[in-house]
Amino acid sequence: MTDQTQSVDLSKMAEDKSREEKSAGDERVRKVPTWKRLLHRPEFGAISGALLVFVFFFITAGDSGMFASDGIINWTTVSAQLGLIAISACLLMIAGEFDLSIGSMIGFAGMMMTIPAVYWGWPIWGAILFAFAGAMLIGFLNGYIVVKTGLPSFIVSLAFLFMLRGLTIALSILFTNRTIVGGIDKYADGDWLAAVFGGVIGKSLFTWFANIGLISSYDDGTPVVEGIPMVIVWCVFLAVVASWVLLRTKYGNWIFATGGDDKAARNVGVPVDKVKISLFMFTAFTATVYAACQVFEFGSASADRGVLKEFEAIIAVVIGGALLTGGYGSVIGACFGALIFGVVQMGIFFTGIDSDWFRVFLGAMLLIAVLFNNYIRKKVTEARH
Amino acid sequence: MSEFIIELKKVSRYFGSVIAIKDIDMKVKLGEVHCLLGDNGAGKSTLIKTLAGVHAPSDGEYLFEGKPVVFESPVEALDSGIATVYQDLALVPLMSVTRNFFMGREITKGRGIFKRFDIETANQIAQKGMAEMGINVRDPSQAIGTMSGGERQCLAIARAIHFGAKVLILDEPTAALGVKQSANVLKVVAKAKARGLAVILITHNVHHAYPIADRFTLLNRGQSLGSFMKSEVSREDVLEMMAGGQELDELTAELEEFSRLDATA
Where are the annotated segments for Disordered (chain A) (predicted)? Predict the structure, then answer.
């Protein structure tokens, strides 16, 4: 009986304590203003950074044509190309891994679709599917080695960076005796799958825009912007899908859990290995989309395509608010990171500033972003007593 | 069905030539808190890992709901309703309360490619599950990194209860906590017991164990010193058995502190 009262006393005591805690907690909740809550969103830094960049170039390059229709398409295309690979690099980084082979994969995938189409007489759609299958197989291998050996993905994918770049050059010389393989455009005409990557959509809309004088046109009446390039469509589409998957699905929760603490995730039954391998395959997939869009835009594949793109993708992802250690980040943030990248790269061109300053700016942005993210992480994980 | 949900009969576990636990008898009943007490190295960890299906007994019999069982893995034990909350809690600090609560067992709605994590319902369930444990979660989307150690412990327990645990094994739940937070966790243990769960509480803090336990099993150097109902032993008896009487002096001060707390409560 005495024991009974004791435990009752104890729970009563605990209740009092927790009431105290609760009321203290309430006060704190009320104190946090909305802007501070926004500050704690992972994409906050990238979105405000993008706004700043726009304001800056509006002022310095507003009359240079940067914000005319062709100028807009110009920097949107550059941003979208980077956005494509930033989206997958972002998911992978949230899951706690890196893929440094994205850039080399762009070159390799481009060759994988161009050589069979131009030299072996494959139909274009077959060559494209072959490139996707091959790239994703390599992505699988990359991920499989990482999860089975437990080695840092930094090292494993660095190895793939060199191997794939070397193979791209060696194989293109072996099969074609050159490192730039052109002429794919004459096969691509009328191919249903090539049209998904090359070309533009909304032609009639833009012609109408030109007719009503909304956008300028050349002397022969064709608008300066024919339509929206497919790479932009791909980037927006993948951003929406990837963001939805990350935030709204079971699999998305597994990505956060895998990167946040893979041991804890494993203990509650999250298939950590499958999550990681599938994300390595997704980075290979987006690298191939990137490659396909370039191949059908230029009509050629080149062995040096995509050099350093892996680092640009990582910079965009980090500016987008993802933590290098995993478990935290945002696809939308990564896309805004890519947008900052594209706008600054093109903006510097339009303002006539020496383009060397672009790299200085990038490095500085990266450093600021990392410091900012670090601060946010501390805020988010700070224990409350 | 037997009166006891778990019964160990002369269970031993060896690792090579090392005898980790030897001839342990233990009975766990639904609606009871069973405290497993012992100093470091007494074999508590081996015993709970045997209960949780991590290790199979080398010798002896493990009865679950009256039937002999051999769990091949912790997952099998979990499926039978034996959930273990280890000290690392299996929680991810950067993730929200809800996301942690449902980690690995997300509830979904929709079909085919539109099948998605039902966050609204999950938020409600997590909030309700925590409220039942006496913790008011204002914002289920807050990262649990912002919660105190005690609250995290409670979240791990609430999660185990929600996913159908019948037996809850808690490994040193109050080890790293302050007095206030320990009291919160013990209150959650009391609630779990009130819901008819069997709780196996591992601790070497008698002051935490005594108020809440119904039954004690004491371990020393891999062997059981016996199981006792609370009515059979006093706190001092338990302490003496655990510490061998040697360190009582040191602990007297701590004891006084605790009884003072009891009195003021």
Answer: 1-27
